[in-house]
Amino acid sequence: MTPVRRMVHAVLLATALGAAAVGATPARAETYPDRPIHLVVPFPPGGPADIVARPLAERLMAALGQPVVILNKPGASGTIGAAFVAKSAPDGYTLLLGTSNELTMSPGLYAKLPYDPVRDFEPITTLVLFPNVLVVNKDLPVHSASELVALTRARPGKISYGTSGTGSTNHLTTELYRFATKVELNYVPYRGGAPAMADLLGGQIQAMFATMPSSTGLINGGAIRALMVTDTKRWAAIPDVPSAPEAGLPEVQVISFNGVLAPAGTPRDIVQKLHDEIVKIMNTPTMTARMLDQAGAVSTSTPEQFAEILKIDFERWLSVIKTNEIHVE
């Protein structure tokens, strides 16, 4: 079990055991919502966050009786979209589909952010957990992580590794990989995972750590080749791909999460109403199966559990960033 997986399970168990019973919902939530809700995805359309957000928005609209509109606000590894939500009115009508990138990684990478990930948001619930997967262009003559390391060493600075942006989950995963292997990489940041994957398919870059939702179909279809999953175990969606320890890179273990948050100050009864509806939706057999098809594992939480997960994951990544002397220009 990876450190993040252990952390999530421990927080969920501890908080569940100590949680107080929830009382009656205050009257304010009875009239909410009475107009459209905007769910901000801080990455381009087609990425892994989008894959979770769109079916959730469709079902949440049916549950709440109001449109739930997806707003893609990409840039700066999710921090532009996060800042937009942090500055929005705390009324429950602007929500963030948040990820590890802008909530627990960027705060340790950037000296200044236009928001505070703890102070400026009300966590509602986690949604899905998924690892990254090391993938290469299908024409690259490598079939294992060790062969990729050997080729990268033989061609120093010539093998281009893409990411969805500086400070992103796959950027930090790439840095863990670089420090573990001591290889010289040609690092190419993009404005999201979808454009990076497009260039991997086109051969403009040769390798990247992609999210499972954005890559599983391409892997199984033979469009790209997978070399390693960043977990301690193999994943059922791509059972022939070795885990990080099996690939000889146990240091490169990363499990990402996403979740829904509101601006700080959003009334508690509205947060609770959103929590109850989203958790119900995510744990339906249909959504669980859909996320498994995208190589993600549904994992919901209470607002308090989510807050604790954010705190613990931030501390973990801050340690990784400092230990490996990772810098963002």
Please, could you describe this protein's structure?
This protein has eleven helices and ten strands. It has helices spanning 3-18, 48-64, 79-86, 100-109, 145-154, 169-181, 193-202, 212-220, 268-282, 285-293, 303-323, and strands at residues 37-41, 68-72, 94-99, 121-137, 160-163, 186-189, 207-211, 224-229, 255-263, 297-298. Strands 1, 2, 3, 4, 5, 6, 7, 8, 9 and 10 form a ten-stranded mixed beta sheet that branches. Helix 1 (3-18) packs antiparallel against helix 11 (303-323) and helix 2 packs across helix 9. 49% of the residues are buried. The model is unreliable at 13-27 (pLDDT under 50).
Shape: globular
The string of secondary-structure elements, in order, is: HEHEHEHEHEHEHEHEEHHEH
> What is the CA-based Rg, rounded?
19 Å
Overall strand count: 10
Q: Structural class from helices and strands?
A: alpha/beta
Kindly identify the CATH topology of the largest domain.
D-Maltodextrin-Binding Protein, domain 2
Largest sheet: 10 strands, mixed
Q: How many domains in all?
A: 2
The CATH architecture assignment of the largest domain turns out to be 3-Layer(aba) Sandwich
CATH class of the largest domain, anyone?
Answer: Alpha Beta
Distance between the termini: 33 Å
Helix share bin: 40-55%
Helices and strands in order:
Elements (H helix, E strand, L loop, with lengths): L2 H16 L18 E5 L6 H17 L3 E5 L6 H8 L7 E6 H10 L11 E17 L7 H10 L5 E4 L5 H13 L4 E4 L3 H10 L4 E5 H9 L3 E6 L25 E9 L4 H15 L2 H9 L3 E2 L4 H21 L6
Parallel strand pairs: 1-2, 1-3, 5-6, 5-7
Antiparallel strand pairs: 3-9, 4-7, 4-8, 4-9, 4-10
Helix pairs in contact: 1-11, 2-9, 4-11
